[in-house]
Amino acid sequence: MIFITVHSFFLFNFETNIPIKMPKVETFDRKQVLQNATNVFHKNGYNGTSMQDLVDATSLNRSSIYNSFGSKLGMFMEVLTHYRSCGKDNMKKELIHTHNASDSIKAIFNMYVEDILNDTNKKGCLLVNCKSEMTNQEPMIKSFMEQSQDQTTAMLEDIVYKGQMEKIFNQDQTAAQYALYLYSAIQGLRMTGILNNNKEELDNLVNTILKALY
After folding, report:
1. Helical ranges in 45-138 per DSSP H
2. 191 contacts 123 by C-beta, under 8 angstroms
3. What's this model's pTM, rounded to 2 decimal places?
4. Could you tell me which CATH number the domain at 1-82 has?
5. Domain residues of the chain, as ranges?
6. How far is CA 11 from CA 4, 25, 67, 180, in A?
7. How far is Cα 181 from Cα 159, in angstroms, rounded to an integer?
8. In which residue ranges does the UniProt entry place its DNA-binding region annotation (predicted)?
């Protein structure tokens, strides 16, 4: 999909002595630009990524980046949104094939294990990395992370609640308490996966985590 970004420049009308604002059109594939920027931020982190890195990765000049995204932070916020959106899409595809709450929770954790196994460069999860690097440095990022956490825990809570109503999961804790537990376990799993990509050990870890539900 091609997005068009319109910037402005001025022509001068010598008859009226009034400058005329004219559009300057730049075309680029915004989705591809965001993916390229995502790769750079994921590799280097926010603080480790320079504007020149983004210029090289996106093939946009500095002026185009500033005009289209506002700032390095503005681009990073769109990158985070893009990354989270891709993750949601992948999760939806996995959950379509599940039949009950137990299958759904297992599918979510198995998806993260697969992400770890496919992460040959050991970059980890961009959102988890960003949380540890930037949450206490930038209010906009903190707000994004809080929103992301709320959305994920709400989804987990809904699944757990259904499992409890179907007598699949125990009710030793509330669905909300289990949701926060599972969310925290996912964060820890992704961090563990940066150093350990042994499938058998990761599967055993997941099984241990999920035992609390039964």
Report:
1. 51-58, 62-69, 72-95, 101-118, 126-134
2. no
3. 0.82
4. 1.10.10.60
5. 1-82, 97-214
6. 21, 15, 19, 58
7. 13
8. 50-69
What is 97-214's CATH topology?
A: Tetracycline Repressor; domain 2 (1.10.357)
Residue 4 φ/ψ, nearest 5 degrees: -115, 125
Write out pLDDT tens, residues 56-74: 999 999 999 999 999 999 9
Across 190-207, average pLDDT = 96
| Distance between CA atoms of residues 202 and 175, nearest Å | 24
d(C-alpha 142, C-alpha 80), whole Å: 12
Q: Convert the pLDDT of each residue in 72-83 to its tens digit.
A: 999 999 999 999
Max avg pLDDT among 113-127, 130-144, 168-182 = 168-182
Binned at pLDDT 50, 70 and 90, residue 120 comes out as: confident
How far is the C-alpha of 20 from the C-alpha of 179, rounded, in Å? 57
For CA atoms 130, 132, 137, 143, give the dihedral sign. positive
β partners of residue 25: 6
